[in-house]
Amino acid sequence: MRSPIVSMLACLLAIAASDASAQSPRAFASAVNMAGRQRMLSQKMSKEFALLALGVDTANQQTSLTATMELFESSLAKLQNGDAAAGIPAPPGEAIQVQLKHVEELWLSFKEVLESGRALETVDSATLAKVAAQNLLLLQEANKAVQLYVVAAAKAGVEVAGNVVNIAGRQRMLSQKMSKEICFIALGIDAEGQRAALAATQALFARSLDGLIAGDEELGLPATSHEEILQQMRLVSSLWEEFSARVDTALNGAVDTAYLEKLASLNLTLLGEMNRAVQMYAGLAES
Hints:
The protein is mainly alpha-helical. The chain contains eight helices and no strands. The N and C termini lie far apart (about 45 Å).
């Protein structure tokens, strides 16, 4: 015969499981969205650091870098611990807990490099090389966390919604990754390697954009039929045409200060409109 304490614990666990199941579509859409945004923030802060090193609008880049780093850190805490006000559940499984802890360890190391580098009057090549390497490690591990959430969402029966929010959210990251790669080309940090990465990032953004709008079976994307989201994605497409042309310029030759100043503005417009689309996809998944 079970003790009253054991029986009570079993009852509480059953209630908790029932509550999680009932809230899973909304909770998973919110978690996938926030975890996916971490990927973007890893690239955005790296881009901001590179623009600082290039001397482009340095006061604004310092302010933006601080805000981006703070948002990454606070979002990571919400994902690790759950946040009812933000609609973020506690990690649904040990694998996600372990992965988020790994992301935290990488973040603390990367944060130290950014903080020490941004205080320098002139950023040295060794620091730039560390940023160039460590941001990709952080991105890679943050992306693994997103994939674990998508798997968990599939098990909860919201696979398509989770995947759409994931890939739409990834577009935010890709906009920042391309901008960062262009900046590192301008800085002369592994320029050829950065160009190869830039071409691949450009191609992935273009394919994902087409897939989100028209559907892509291989990517697991249904065509978007919601009219308001379609209008937003058409706006993203028009911005992408201009941004992609600038990517082509960086792939084919040198870029000057005027180019970088325009890039610093245009990439944020693309990011902002893509983020609006992600929130719309997430809202559709929650409804």
